[in-house]
Specification:
The complex is a heterodimer of chains A (248) and B (225). With 248 residues, chain A is of the alpha+beta class. Chain A has helices at residues 33-46, 118-125, 148-158, 165-169, 176-187, 196-209, 220-224, 232-247, and strands at residues 3-9, 18-24, 69-70, 73-74, 96-100, 109-111, 114-115. Chain A folds into two domains: 3-111, Beta-grasp domain (Ubiquitin-like (UB roll)), CATH 3.10.20; 117-247, Alpha-helical ferredoxin (Fumarate Reductase Iron-sulfur Protein, Chain B, domain 2, Orthogonal Bundle), CATH 1.10.1060.10. Chain B is mainly α and 225 residues long. Classes of the chains: A alpha+beta (248), B mainly alpha (225).
């Protein structure tokens, strides 16, 4: 298929960017979206132009590295997939595809479609972990009984790959689905209880400090999340935050 | 707790609590207004009780006023903060693919409700406060002394068609606001559980039923008088 691509080009964080039109031809519908971008970049390199910078790593939907806002949606029009697993069969011959970086003040553009998502790392550092003292008599994790329901919900929350699609899709650039998932993952398990109060308070404080917006429950994040993280995680974080503040 | 109310989640919970309070007030307001259709005498008696009872006037009324003002002011503050969270807009954004129109436009439905509220206050609340606390007439009687004034005043207000039309439009925006706001308030206070599905159904009934109730009352008084 032959396509017209409208791509955001920006040389550096300080430089102003703009949308630039490109044509690609003979794209197979079996290609992934990133393979189509590879074809475009080969074309640009061959003609002596600067290739389009974009994030990617595993290309199998588990690393959370690829991003891109495609035709007005994070990771494009398909559901439950990252950009690397989006297939060109989702598009038609002759289509014009608009490709932009994830937009948020807390995700500044570094170059073209690459954004700095280290704000997520700083939120994780603020409390997205449990401390296990390796004193020599550490208890076997399997010795702590956990209900199947809780284990399943914690696992579901833990599938968040931190790609930032929730922030990109949210009209307020809120990171609450990401933080909700990270808080829930530990809040549902006994191992997470020891640091529960500090965890939710510190992670929410860091999230606010990074300049993410406020959640207004539009649910866009849940729809666009490639891992299907549920809004229940935001509700759980709200409960955890309220109870943490009541405890002092 | 000052840190709590300065946090994104604290503000969200405060917005939700004020919304839940206002939604309860709406239900009570409609229940009293319905009386005007079925029994003008009962409507007059209840209105007089609400208008002169010290607990309602000096405790609940200030709380209600605070709730209304807080909800509007906090709504605008959050909107401004949210705008700052994305200063460069998308060239193409397909919001309809993942969220409802109502959820994305709460600020606009809220703005229309604010305009409606100002008109409503000028129509009913300010004249009421003037009669009772400026003029000092707490009797609730008509100037000629032939019974209570509340029902007569209400019916008189809905005589001009333009006011009825304005109220109907105001309630359409209220319905749009509630269609997202009702469920959203429960989600914000952390209530997302096995009852959420049932709550969503109830929310649709409430969000359409309450405004339609107010519209019908205005229409009945306009047509019958």
């Amino acid at each position: 298929m032959n396509l017209t691509l409208k791509i955001w080009r920006q040389k550096s964080p300080e430089k102003k960017g703009k949308m630039v039109d490109y044509k690609v031809t003979d794209i197979s519908e079996h290609m992934s979206f990133l393979e189509m971008m590879d074809v475009l970049n080969e074309q640009l390199i061959n003609s002596g132009e600067e290739p389009v910078a974009f994030d990617h790593d595993c290309r199998e939907g588990i690393c959370g590295m690829c991003s891109m806002y495609i035709n007005g949606e994070a990771h494009g029009p398909d559901r439950g997939v990252t950009t690397c697993q989006l297939h060109m069969r989702m598009f038609k011959d002759g289509d014009t595809i608009t490709i932009e970086p994830f937009r948020a003040t807390a995700f500044p553009v570094l170059k073209d479609l690459v954004v700095d998502r280290s704000s997520f790392d700083r939120i994780q550092h603020a409390g997205g972990y449990i401390s296990v003292n390796t004193s020599g008599n550490t208890q076997d994790a399997n010795a702590t009984p956990i209900s199947k329901h809780d284990a399943d919900e914690a696992m579901d929350a833990a599938t968040c790959i931190g790609c930032g699609a929730c922030v990109a899709s949210c009209k307020n650039s809120s990171a609450m689905l990401f933080v909700g998932a990270k808080v829930s993952q530990y809040a549902l398990l006994p191992q997470g209880q020891v640091e529960a109060v500090d965890r939710v308070k510190n992670m929410v404080a860091q999230m606010d400090l990074e300049g993410f917006g406020n959640c207004t429950n539009t649910g866009a994040c849940e729809v666009e999340c490639p891992k299907g993280i549920s809004l229940e995680n935001i509700a759980r974080m709200n409960r955890e935050f309220l109870s943490a503040n009541l405890k002092g | 707790m000052s840190g709590f109310f300065n946090s994104s989640i604290g503000r969200k919970i405060a917005m939700a609590l004020s919304a839940l309070f206002l939604m309860f007030f709406l239900l009570q307001h409609l229940a009293i207004n319905i009386l005007s259709v079925f029994s003008p005498d009962t409507f007059n008696e209840v209105s007089h009780f609400m208008g002169t009872n010290p607990l309602v006037q000096y405790a609940l009324q200030p709380v209600l006023l605070f709730g209304v003002i807080f909800h509007f002011v906090m709504g605008f503050i959050l909107e401004i903060k949210n705008k700052k969270a994305r200063t460069v807009k998308y060239a193409k954004n397909n919001g309809a693919a993942n969220s409802t129109w109502m959820s994305r436009n709460m600020i606009y439905s809220g703005l229309f409700i604010l305009i409606f509220m100002i008109i409503h206050f000028l129509d009913f609340w300010i004249p009421e406060i003037n009669t009772k606390y400026i003029v000092g007439d707490m009797s609730g009687q008509l100037p000629n002394g032939e019974g209570f004034r509340y029902y007569e005043e209400l019916v008189h207000k809905f005589e001009p068609i333009w006011r009825v039309a304005l109220y109907c439009i105001g309630f359409v925006f209220l319905s749009l606001h509630l269609l997202h706001g009702f469920n959203s308030a429960f989600q914000s206070v952390g209530a997302n559980n096995k009852y959420t599905k049932g709550l969503k159904t109830f929310s649709k009934i409430y969000s359409i039923g309450i405004p339609v109730g107010f519209i019908l009352i205005a229409l009945v008084h306009h047509i019958c008088h």
